Amino acid sequence: MKIMLVSPPFKGMSKYPPLGIGYIASTLMENGFPDVSLLDADIMEYSVEKTIDKIMNDDPDLVGISVCTPAVNTTLKIAERLKNLDDRLRVIVGGPHISSFPETLLSSRYIDAACIGEGEESFLELSERYKQGRDLNGVRGVFYKDNGQIIKNELRQTISDIDKIPPPARFLYKLDRYRIAGEFPPGKFPFTTLLTGRGCPFNCTFCASKTVFGRKIRFRSVDMVLKEIEDIVYRFGIRHIQIIDDTFTFKKSRVIEFCEKIKKRGLKIIWNCYARVNTVDPEILKAMKEAGCYMITYGLESGNQDILDNIKKQTTVEMGKRAITLTKKIGIKTQAGFMFGGPGETRESIKQTVKFALSLKCDHVGTSIATPYPGTELFNTFKEKIGQNIDWDLLTMQNPEDLGEVNPVVLCCDMDKEEFIAMYRWALRKLLLQPRFVFNRALRIRSFKELFWGLSSIFKITFSNIRALKG
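The structure assignment produced for this chain is given below.
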């Protein structure tokens, strides 16, 4: 049986390897399915038509598509064309959007089934059933169609021992094409991502992570993580790694063990990670710095405490300031993420956040608009406002590079939409056009394409067609 796993075309700022389908690929290959291929149509910059051509040329029996919310319509187009070209082809969907809102795609007659939650075991059992010519009745974690009717099997529990999941099949990726956004030294490419744990016990209203990985944290053993890192370094020649856990620094003793073993094994890597501001102290930061940690990204979200409380961040503005100060003192670069437009946002709170962000003097700043993605508390809160006929393509956090298209479908605060968009762009100009940021980005330009991308972003931020604001 020939299986192809696909990440569809998606307009994004950073290009990261889609680890989800990589984990499924390695699980399949270790369990009797050697003929598995992987297509990241986004990193290949394929159009929908090119993606379809590539899939059909590979001639698979089963196609699995990982779907994020803004790629729903693209996925439906791909599925329809595939089925029209070969009705015997099985099309399966999975990913964060499907786990939260499976009917979005299963209602289409071109989709055969959906994997809900973690996909490794569910997709494997589904593939075995198809290979044996059996139906999907009773396959936990799978919803499927029977004579046009959606059948919902029992959900599958999250995998308790994630050490038994083989590392993602990195040899199937075009590793040289991935590039990381952010404040990194030129020439430290290629890079890859690494997942050392799953699950998050926190309940931020804007995050859908728990719909796939659950709220209970499950860590991989440090030795298994280091074995994967050694494979990344010695097999693929990659020494720049981004750890993408939601909760990497949650367990201090584990992080310190991780750092000590990196040094003991002589692994010459640079790496970055995400961290909550209330999970770091001088000891853990010092250990991370000595083990090659180059930068930490903190989701500060706002400089206004009421906003933080409204989104259930369970942190304070002062915690954010302390984390940034400690990290800079240790010598690790800092990136702060700020989210605008959350419940309770006002013109004054936006100004307060910008003032706070500027005072921190972080090495890099990321911004986004509060977006009610399926699977989040925000989505449930604004379900009626979102409506039944939403264009999923437009449900995006609006990266600065898309400034010409800023038009939040659903605004999660009570501000006038025009005023919010104007204030958001004002905030971007204040935050992202700081001379040191522009200078550092210029140092990282390595091609005419990147030069065009950078100049285009600056032009949009500076000259976007909005009414002028004072202050």
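Interim note for the steering committee: The chain has two domains: 3-152, 179-463. The first strand starts at residue 3 and ends at 7.
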